[in-house]
Specification:
This protein has 129 residues and is of the alpha+beta class. The chain has 3 helices and 7 strands; from the N terminus they run αββββββααβ. It has one domain (3-128): Beta Barrel (Thrombin, subunit H), CATH 2.40.10.
């Protein structure tokens, strides 16, 4: 994927993204495989999970995570929208992983409100636009 395509996608984002270190887990819909990782980018629309062996695009998931300092466990239906592995041309090691989009609009709105109320320093995050 070229940088122009990525820049165009960034311009269309509905929600602000934060750079974070957030423990997440998931269950793959259909076969029940379980995974855990540390997400490095989070927004109300989805997150990025670094991985040398990302799940294939279009994989349906149920994501679970808790915001730092928060009591609520977020459990959202999601899907892998893109995946980069070592075989993806032009992608540095830092770009290997999977982009995951949340699919419940009400949950996205609730998450967006919570993210806006949490000071960036609590998240250990930095804004990304």
């Amino acid at each position: 994927m070229t940088s122009e395509v990525r820049a165009g996608a960034a311009d269309k984002r509905r929600y602000r993204r934060l750079t974070v270190r957030l423990e997440v887990s998931w269950i793959v819909e259909g076969d029940g495989r379980i995974g855990t990782a540390t997400a490095t980018t989070l927004g109300a629309g989805g997150l990025f999970v670094p991985s040398e062996e990302p799940l294939p695009a279009r994989t349906q998931l149920r994501m679970r995570f808790r915001l730092p300092g928060g009591a609520e466990v977020h459990e959202l239906p999601a899907r892998v929208v893109w995946a980069n592995d070592a075989a993806t041309p032009g992608i540095p090691a830092s770009g290997r992983g999977m982009g995951i989009a949340f699919q419940d609009k009400n949950a996205q709105t609730r998450l967006a409100r919570q993210l806006e109320r949490i000071p960036t320093r609590v998240l250990g995050a930095t804004p990304r636009d």
